[in-house]
User: What shape does this take?
Amino acid sequence: MSEFENNNFSGNPEQPQQNPNPAGAPQQNFNPAGAPQQPVYSAPMNEYYPSQGTDGNQDNKKKIIMAVAAVAAIIIVVLLFKGIFSGSSKDEAENLFDDGMLIFGEKEEYETRWGSKQTKYKYGIINEKGKVIIDADYDAIGFVGEGRIVAGEWEKTDDGAEMVTMLRDKKGKEVSDDELSQSAVYQYFSEGLLPVCEDDEWGFMNKNGKWVIKPSFYSVGNFVDGVAPAKEDEDDEWGYINKKGKWVIEPDFDSAGEFVDGLAIASKNGKYGFINKKGDWKVKRKYSSLYHFADNGLAAACDDGEWGYINKKGEWVIENEYADAYSFTEDGLALVKDGSKYGYINKKGKMVIDDDYVEASSFSNGLAYVKEDADDDYGYINKKGEMVIDADFTSARSFNKDGVAAVKDGDEWGFINKKGKWVIDPEFKYASSFHDDGYALVCTGDDDNSDDDEYFVINKKGKSVFKDTFDALETYSAMEYNYNFDEDEDED
Assistant: This one.
């Protein structure tokens, strides 16, 4: 498996990503086909983050687990619209710095009432030079666009704790008095509106923190072309509202996604199809899973457990005969699973690269990383299926627009060019891909101990752009799941 393919790694659990996955299908993309899929959400993973601890008291552990589970439930609902039904995503091809900002974390050690030492993180924001612009005072921070962030802290409740967040500007100043839920950390402005939850009801704010649509919905999606999916109550059906909060497509769907090129994926009675902006079925609901249409007019679809490709009339252009299938990419190829291995087909359904791989990625900059057998390492093939970079890497990422890829040699990450030559020697414990702004996020430290891990950002020459290193760095959002209150607060 290509470790940390989603690029959010540090002393904090992996953050949920916004992946363009098919409706009703298992989580896909970002991880190579055939690899164990990264979870949509994960609690602290001690294999990678041994510094993350929980209080020694079993009751407190249960409360933490309940709090994490609550966060997970909300995040899963959020991801239905930030990935599964969405045709766009905030992915690793974009800039590492969000509007010139990056989240950093500082470790704090505290002693429990039973005398054990534990560690947790507080988060703040740095600029592109590594200068702190917002101190590490928060348990959670998320970049939400429009020059705004959401930041908050755990607050004690009778049942344990709840995360309370607020909309803030780039200096950390509150722009609204409204207290929002933890889910706001994972949202993003779309068409000038931010979906946020207050007191278990969803609405939309503008960048000034004013309610444009007051919270009155059980769940919502993002606005695209002036409409957003929404449902009023848990047992209600989904419909679409305009920016005044009025129904423009009456609730009539079991699920409903955002519009992409005039079509949205929706379902009823467990079957998915495409609707237009009038709510009419343009492709009848008869599929168990769907992707959005690619540029060539074909969409991956699943029926009776087998995948194929349909046109905008709902006709099978490539018969459903595959165990798995991915969308066509700009190079005109699609990754499919035939039996137990992966290969590549063209728009006519011809297997142009044989299904020889237990793991494979889509092509990027003319190359794809593949793995022939479970015990093999990763190498890179071209569009003729030729292995042009030998399978010598224990993990690999896709090539970026500049022709550089992060790969793992044994236990250390470095960067190669399209000839397989090292451009930055393998010397990092972790490494992200290089982003469009020319930066990559890396970590150095002991493989068996994360206590002394140091995170920083490098340029294309492999040089750190910061004077200092940090205990943690995150790209889009970060949340500390281990809350701890002062001893006097814990006393009943």
Notes: The first strand starts at residue 101 and ends at 111. Helices lie at 58-84, 487-490. The CA atoms of residues 22 and 308 lie 13 Å apart.
